[in-house]
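Lecture notes, unit on protein representations.

Consider one protein chain, 691 amino acids long.
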Amino acid sequence: MEILTDSQIKKSKKYLRAIIFISLLFSVLILFFLLGLFTYAKIKGPPPLAVPQSTLIYSANEEVIGESNQGGQKRYWVKLSQISPAMIDATLVIEDKNFYEHHGFDLKRIAGAAIADIKAMAKVQGASTISQQYARNLFLTHDKTWTRKLNEALYTYRIEMNYSKEKILEGYMNTIYYGHGAYGIQAASQFYFGKDANELTLAESALLAGIPKGPSHYSPLSSYEKSKSRQEIILNTMVKEQKITKDEAEKAKRAELKIIGEHEHQHIKMAPYFQDVVKHQLQTQFGLDEKTIELGGLKVYTTLNPKHQKVAEKVISEEMDPESEVQIGFASMNPKNGYVTALVGGRDYEESPYNRAVQAIRQPGSTIKPLLYYEALERGFTPSTTMKSELTTFTFNDGQSKYTPHNYNNKYANDKITLAQAIAVSDNVYAVKTHLFLGEEVLANAAKKFGLSTKIKPIPSSALGTSGARVIDMVNAYNMFANGGVKVEPVFITRVEDFTGKVIYEHEWEKEQVLDPDVAFVMTHMLTGIFDPKLNDYSTVTGITIREHITRQYAGKSGTTNTDNWMIGFSPQLTAGIWTGYDKGKDITAIADKRYAKEIWVQFMEEALKGEPIKTFKPTNDVVGVKVNPHDGKLATKDCSSQRFTYFVKGTVPTEYCTDQLDEKNEKEPNKEEKKDSDQPWYKKFKEWLF
């Protein structure tokens, strides 16, 4: 054994100290590096995991009616629990089998890949973990520079520090590219197999898991043989990793696969005017920017009833002459909650996206009268209150102004008529008299109570609907009659979820009674009179032309001006309103153009409610129904020429009985003395006269 000299021992100790020092220094540097990396990750915090995702708009029955996308890319987000376990296992074994063991970087895999590359003198094996791939998909490009690799490592570390393995895997599965514009497993599952990710079989899962390695090579649409070959590799690996049995793998290899190759929803564009309102509300009411709405992966649940929407579009298309330039605004709503079930803002969205149902302000004509008459009922009027209908000139503004309203075709009773009759035949003189009697500010205030977003001018002609209103507001106002006076507002959106499924908005409604339920019911029952010819005294009831199409009880009111035609009405289950006219407000002269509103309304209501139970309006507790003579409003007897069952608020029932039959009898039959005298022969009369 060689004996070291003192100088050699000293020299060895010197080298040893140097090595220890360098090791300590290196360790300290590594420690500082790790502390620095930790501090950096803490300061930067968790990186956002949101990526561009398609926003989906759903109907009331959760059918997709609309979708946004970027450059044809389909991106949907599903929770990890909504992905087939077979799909998760297949992905893990082929992409990152040690995913749950490492902290973002698989050192053994990196070393193995480096050795394989050196042996082949080329890049033959990847070493990126799922966390690294996710970081790259979220924040980076796919170039191969050292800068990109460093940034990828930093993002990976931040992701691993701040998110659970489940969250990372979920994000990866929702962002990985599967070819043909499908980003994420949900889009891929729908595109290739026409099903949701939670429905994937083992065979389908193994096939899909092989695509991300090279979508252009391993897509079954590009090369079915290559995709099947890679599927087999994945199934064998799953057996090796004890995820499945050998028998399960063999069955999956032999399983027949039906490749669809078509994106779901790609041709869907239902109710475009409705969808425009939804997107506008997301911006204005919920404060979401346009980018979030289009690419935020939102799930927007709406009130649209696909059946109602299809019926509305069908009826409008069939009833309106394609050559006519008359436009339309239409809305239907559920009276109980204000849910908008269908909306049409024009005859052709591609030609004109201007929404006449929610944007246009047009004269509502006589459809405003029920709001006025409700106020009259609250102030002592009853269905039997009479006023004289005759051509009348009203003087106002201290005698400075005059106003002469005219009835349709200048027909007047020239006698007293009841409020019930005035509604049924739409008598304008009665309306203006009521308006002026109550005070012009009453109707203006009523408009606010009924939810109109436009103002009614306190002038005489406002009783005839000369102040503009929106279709959606007018339909909502009638909703309040239909539901017994409960305040509702038009609702388009019931719930909004972000791309992770977190609810960021949910519609809440508190019941608020704003109308007297008894008065609202009396008003509703009077509105059924527009279809009842019994109320015909001197003119035709306004709903007579569509009466033959009616199979259930409705209440409603039509409205006509020179430039606008309206029809709004309701059953206990549904309210609908229609405006028709020219965009430029020119006079409607063609007879055919004037009938659209009523015809479309009745056809829609009948079709939309087909299959629904036939319901009538249920009387409230404090109303009384009695038979009255509809022509004078007095209680009917068996001798009255006409009778109609009419409801009154308790304490306001008429006390007088009709006398028209008795008066008529007296006119036809003179008294006995007169009759006796008239029956005498001429010679006896002459004798009496002579003597």
